[in-house]
Amino acid sequence: MREFDLEAFLPRFWKALGETLVMTGVSFAAAAVIGILLALWLYASRPGNLLENRVVYAVLNFVINLVRPVPFLIVAIALVGVTRLVFGTGFGPLAATLPLTIVASVAIARVIETNLVAVDAGAVEAGAAMGASPVRVLFTIVIPESLGPMILGLTYIVVALVDATAVAGTLGGGGLGYLALNYGWARFDYTVIWIVVIALVVLVQGLQAIGNRIARSVMH
Predict the structure, then answer these.
(1) Which residue of 127, 176, 185, 217 lies most exposed, with the fewest beta carbons within 10 A?
(2) Sorting pLDDT into bands at 50, 70 and 90, what band is 33?
(3) Is 60 left (phi over 0), alpha (psi -120 to 50) or beta?
(4) Can you give the C-alpha Rg of the chain in angstroms?
């Protein structure tokens, strides 16, 4: 085991932590917008729902079911050519945001759709009976009623994204996963690995606590 050098490690750690936060933040922001829009479209176009469209629903459902089961590692490898085309490189934190966004988008779409479907059908029917348009029912009844669970669902996804950024590190994506692999495992420096593990646990716990607090305030 190599002797741990704190002075040399700290700059690498802060850089890796920053890369993890960038990957998580950028991917989550983009995925939240895309995923929520997909979820609203899925919900509204369901058979028998506000804007029923069986073709649209079938296509969206198929695409989400096609992407969702594929492990992030496989998605990232499959999109290396696309990331090179978009970012000029297939490696690094910015390039990793593309597969992270795609995987998170479909996960958010499915989680949010589930929350929307759980809204009391009686409330939706009452809104429609009062003459509200389908779009108004969606934004004034369905979304507000499901907002608390939606925030908890988004919190689950952002935590999963932190885990995925660690996997991205194995593909040269940077971040804490890259630090643990190249400066911990490859050099048999297990102190580095444990510090990274602790940092990830603290980060995840912090994000979960923030999400829980926001959800509680909304539900109250």
Answers:
(1) 217
(2) very high
(3) alpha
(4) 21
| Alpha-helix residue ranges (DSSP H) falling in 46-131 | 54-67, 72-78, 80-87, 93-117, 121-129
* pLDDT tens, residue by residue, 71-129: 888 888 888 888 888 888 777 888 889 999 999 999 999 999 998 888 887 877 787 77
User: Helices 6-45 and 54-67 sit at what angle, rounded to 10 degrees?
Assistant: 160
Q: Which CATH superfamily is domain 6-219 in?
A: MetI-like (1.10.3720.10)
Residues in the chain: 220
DSSP character at residue 130: T
Cβ atoms 172, 179 nearer than 8 A: no
Instruction: With CA atoms as reference, report the closest residue to 36 among 101, 100, 102, 106.
Output: 106
- The terminus-to-terminus CA distance of the chain in angstroms comes to 52
What is d(CA 141, CA 2) in angstroms, rounded to the nearest whole number? 60
93-108: pLDDT as tens digits: 888 899 999 999 999 9
Give CA–CA dist 80/96, Å, rounded.
9
pTM over 0.85: yes
